[in-house]
Design goal:
By secondary structure, this protein is α+β, with helices and mostly antiparallel strands. The chain has helices at 14-23, 73-78, 101-106, 116-122, 126-137, 146-155, 164-176, 180-189, 206-216, 223-227, 234-244, 248-260, 272-280, 287-300, 306-311, 321-326, 334-348, 355-360, 362-368; strands at 7-10, 27-29, 38-43, 47-53, 55-60, 65-69, 88-89, 95-96. It is elongated and about 85 Å long.
């Protein structure tokens, strides 16, 4: 397994590190972390590495901490959130494990370092980190330690002070991760499902979530495709967006899936409604529109249609406004209406009609709309 994130720790202070790196000709970037002990080096002009001085927290406010540098590895480990995250690997291969992290990994157990309440109050986001790592480490059906659950229940309110972006980063990993259904159920039981905490309602539909998760998890659903299973309406999507500051693309996907998740298949041509929807949404955003519609199929469990839909190349409407004007339609707001009518005719032909064939239907459309054509 190739690691994707390597963090280094050292007894050297930031000033000492900068002196060593400058002497070695190593470039340093982003000095914003220096007051907390972190220096970032850029190697070979492509790889960034963070090196952080050992430290202890002098004052914590649930997110921000005043730190004091130390040379004691155990004191630094003591400020970590979970035992499995509190170990160090020496350059000679020695593992330094002060809080039985290796044993916890072997037993597939997730525990806070020391007192759960103290660790959580140092940074309330650790509540969500606990569930994320539980999903990755613990086996299905494994129970949580009661002291941990009690500490989470008593400190859930602290999540209200965490930024939406940080909440969403952790929540997304829980939603698409292993044991998502059971973890979200426990989180709900502990009172975390509040709009001001996670952007989720107390009456979120967890049964629908489990159903959607089970039927499409092997087909790489986007986070929002799963998340909206817990949301009852477009209004709830917007409430979630307001709390967690999700991206515009995530919001658009969520709104589309919520609006069309009950769209029925066509008995003769199952993909026809989804192709029509892709065309209706317009060409402005290209492949993004098709991808959003793909997420509807995943949500509904129509995974047998995914390959065919993904291979379908979105056709371009063969008739343009200029072509219609050239046929004598007066300029004005009716042009869009005429285009929409021709697009409907094109869709009904399963996108087979050519530009000439569609333009031959123009007199019929003009008559329907009580318009006069004035060919030049």
């Amino acid at each position: 397994m190739r690691p994707v994130d390597i963090d280094f720790a050292t007894t050297a202070t930031p000033d000492q590190m900068k002196g060593m790196f400058e002497s070695a000709g190593i470039r340093m970037i982003n000095n914003r972390g220096e007051k907390h002990g972190t220096v970032t080096c850029r190697m070979n002009d492509k790889d960034n590495f963070e090196i952080t001085t050992l430290r202890i927290d002098v004052l914590c406010t649930g997110r921000h901490a005043e730190v004091q540098f130390t040379t004691n590895w155990e004191l630094d480990a003591n400020r970590r959130d979970l035992t499995i995250n509190s170990m160090f690997l020496g350059l000679d291969g020695t593992v330094y494990d002060f809080f039985s992290g290796i044993e916890d990994i072997e037993r597939r157990r997730v525990r806070f370092v020391g007192n759960p309440t103290e660790r959580i109050q140092e940074d309330y986001l650790r509540i969500l980190r606990y569930f994320r790592f539980f999903g990755r480490i613990a086996v299905e059906g494994q129970s949580h330690e009661e002291a941990t659950l009690q500490a989470i229940r008593e400190n859930a309110e602290g999540l209200a002070g965490i930024s939406g972006e940080r909440i969403w980063t952790e929540l997304k990993k829980i939603i698409v991760g292993k044991q998502a259904g059971s973890l979200l159920t426990v989180m709900h039981q502990l009172g975390l499902f509040r709009v001001d905490l996670l952007g989720l309602h107390e009456d979120a539909d967890l049964e629908e979530f489990k159903l959607v998760y089970d039927r499409c998890r092997d087909h790489s659903p986007q986070t929002m495709t799963l998340c909206v299973a817990m949301l009852a309406s477009e209004a709830e999507v917007l409430e979630l967006e307001k709390r967690v500051r999700c991206s515009a693309e995530e919001r658009k996907t969520a709104l589309l899936v919520v609006e069309h998740r009950h769209r029925p298949l066509d008995e003769v041509n199952p993909l026809k409604p989804y192709k029509d929807l892709t065309i209706d949404l317009g060409p402005a955003e290209g492949a993004k529109v098709k991808q959003r519609v793909t997420e509807i199929l995943k949500y509904q469990g129509h995974v047998h249609l995914l390959e065919e839909f993904e291979e379908w190349k979105v056709p371009k409407m063969p008739v343009s406004g200029h072509m219609i004007l050239a046929k004598g339609l007066p300029k004005g707001p009716k042009l869009k209406t005429v285009l929409d009518e021709l697009r409907e005719i094109w869709k009904k032909s399963d996108f087979t009609l050519t530009a000439d064939e569609l333009l031959d239907r123009l007199p019929e459309v003009a008559e329907k709309l009580h318009l006069k054509l004035d060919p030049q």
